[in-house]
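Hey,
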Amino acid sequence: METETKIESNKLSVPMAIIVAGILIAGAIYFSSVTPKNISTNNTGTGVITLAPVGKEDRTLGNPDAKVTLVIYEDFQCPFCGAIAGFNPSLIQMLKQRDPNWAPFLPEVMNYVKNGDVLFVYRDWAFLGPESTKAAEAARCAGDQGKFWEYHDYLYSHQNGENEGNFSDTKLKSFAKNLGLEVAIFSQCLDESKYAQAVANSKDEGLKAGVTGTPKGFILKDGEIVSTIDGAEPLSSVKQKIDTALE
């Protein structure tokens, strides 16, 4: 996990990766109303935390009435976030060297999403610098044209260090062009910082939930946090937590 208090510079060269199977499922559903209340728990040993309710402003995949919800906070420059999604092959190789059984868990999570068992919720926790913030804003701008998830995958498959220009405004606009977006509309959204406040709000909400680094996940059942995902946990660990929640 990359933490706010200890950030190591990563200069991993990442070739174009195949989009994570299942991320772009045709049944992606966006909320049209907000009904849940804030979710609190004190089972972390650090006191009561508050997780913002899932609502229409969230980027979601799956059935909103799924038995289990996975809320995950990520940073587009975080190499571990790329690895759990199946991107960043250099880091995946390193993690496998440490644990031969390690495997990215998000592709498997998408199978639960396809089956209607899990609702997946992506949230920004942009903390690794200005390019993290602009990348988060850019993905939301792509969402205005219905391509948040395509842009999400494109960012993770093009990680290459932190704040070295790879996610500069110019590059972010070129990504939009490569994905077939209306570049003029996208550029205006990015230049006007349309989603700067939304990205900042997501960071603040994460802090209230006790997020200190990425990736950080919360597994919910019946509106209550039943487990967490702390860093680049292996597939076996995350699968066990989700299966337990589904029981």
